[in-house]
Specification:
about 450 residues, alpha/beta, Alpha-Beta Plaits, TIM Barrel, 8-stranded mixed barrel, 6-stranded mixed beta sheet, 16 helices, 17 strands, disordered N terminus
Length: about 450
């Protein structure tokens, strides 16, 4: 008989039968309860479902270790109360859940329950009066010959979650995942360690005025020295997004880069500038994001904070745009990235909160090799002008690309033709040269 399900009945204490609210506080308590559940299941020839969930992060890391497991966010607790009796689950500030459901008679019972968890977390919750999608995906593992211990089940559920990452569906563990995802799991472990130990660093690339050759802004990139090999910024961003670590990475980059650029302004290396930060839409949902940017805005008016949204959000757009609009009103600048690549609703563009746009480097690389690239760039720049967006053409790596960008009417550019991304010491040297009159054209 399939395990008893429930809809609308209060789960005792919200964490499982016999536990008071907040009693189940950490991973060690969860492991202990799971060990008992495994022993009981083996005696009765039953099984256990261990599940993991990754969702948008709604907690700030200011007052708590971002990776510490805690009692559930009330909204998530309410969702899981509708799934099953005796569920045991804890959550982390990083937007993750881990838990188990004991005493299942068949593997298919676990699959059904994992699908129910996914369905419950697919419904939006309300934050600041606006509906926000959890964006959850789930992975599960069943007590079996392949997974006989707590460690086995924890690892297997993590691998299943990785499989679900792109499609946001419920995925059960299969042994092939253990082989295929070993490298990815090692990469994620090393990246989390680097983030916790603050071993990530920031590189800087100038945004150049294409008329004067002066430095008009500075864009910050996160880079990672992994075992002596430098992982490029675009790969670091992909890793952070895949493992739902965009929020703490963004906080790290904001803190380190703003301190550096504000210091360069104070000592006179540059009079004023805009510090551009790449921001994934899910970072904006974090309650610590807006206060952190506001604090930077107020710290030194000579350093303007530029928020480059990596894509126009397809989910939670009202909340994201409302937050960006509020920061712009306080003095920040906001740019929409991936012009020419990502989707853009022209009917809604004039209502968006952006003050700038950035032409994707993919289009820039096609200048000179594709007959359509230059007319498309001209159209994008004309559209940006209609919207009163200050537009930067990214990915200018050659003189021919610079010439084409100027022919299209571009005013600002960025790319390796002017300077590759530089670590802080080399960026200081470039600023000194620019102060002495060097043009980057």
């Amino acid at each position: 008989m399939m395990r008893q399900l429930k809809a609308g009945l209060p789960l005792e204490a919200g964490f499982g039968s016999g536990h008071e609210p907040g009693e189940l506080r950490g991973i060690d308590q969860l492991r202990s309860l799971l060990e008992v559940a495994i022993a009981d299941a083996l005696d009765r020839e039953h099984t256990v479902l261990v599940f993991r969930v990754q969702h948008e992060s709604f907690a700030s890391s200011d007052d708590v270790d971002f990776f510490q497991y805690l009692p559930l966010h009330p909204a998530l607790k309410e969702r899981l109360e509708a799934v099953a009796v005796d569920i045991q689950v804890i959550g982390s500030a990083a937007g993750g859940l881990i838990g188990f459901i004991p005493d299942l008679r068949r593997r298919t019972d676990g699959e059904d329950l994992l699908n129910l968890i996914t369905a419950e977390l697919a419904r939006p919750i309300t934050i600041d009066g606006l509906p926000v999608l959890l964006g959850a995906h789930t992975g599960g593992a069943i007590l079996s010959n392949d997974n006989t211990t707590v460690d086995d089940l924890f690892e297997a559920s993590k691998l299943a979650l990785c499989e679900a990452d792109a499609s946001r569906v419920a995925v059960m563990f299969h042994p092939y995942q253990r082989v295929r995802d070993t490298r990815a799991s090692d990469l994620a472990r090393d990246f989390r360690t680097a983030l916790i130990n603050r071993d990530l660093t920031v590189a800087y690339q100038p945004v150049v005025n294409l008329q004067s050759g002066a430095i008009a802004g500075i864009k910050a990139y996160v880079v990672w020295d992994r075992q002596g090999a430098l992982v490029p910024s675009n790969e670091v961003v992909e890793i952070a997004e895949r493992w739902a670590l965009s929020v703490p990475v963004g906080q790290h980059v904001l803190g380190e880069s703003f301190a550096a650029v504000a210091g360069w302004v104070r000592v006179g290396l540059i009079e004023s500038t805009t510090l551009w930060l790449q921001v994934h839409p899910r970072e904006v949902l974090n309650p610590g994001f807006a206060p952190g940017v506001t604090q930077a805005i107020k710290f030194d008016p000579r350093v303007q904070v530029g928020i480059e949204l990596t894509e126009n959000p397809s989910e939670n757009q009202p909340y994201t745009h409302s937050t960006i609009r509020s920061l712009v009103a306080q003095g920040a600048r906001a740019s929409l990235g991936d012009l020419g690549k990502g989707p853009l609703d022209l009917a809604e563009a004039q209502q968006m909160p952006f003050t700038a746009g950035r032409v994707n480097s993919t289009l820039t690389r096609q200048l000179g090799s594709s007959g359509a690239a230059l007319p498309i760039l001209k159209l994008l720049l004309e559209l940006a002008q209609v919207l009163s967006w200050e537009t930067t053409v990214e990915g200018i790596d050659t003189a021919d690309q610079l010439e084409a960008a100027l022919a299209a009417g571009a005013s600002f550019g960025q790319g390796n033709y002017f300077s590759s991304p530089l670590l802080a010491g080399d960026m200081i040297q470039l600023l000194q040269e620019a102060k002495s009159g060097r043009s980057l054209l």
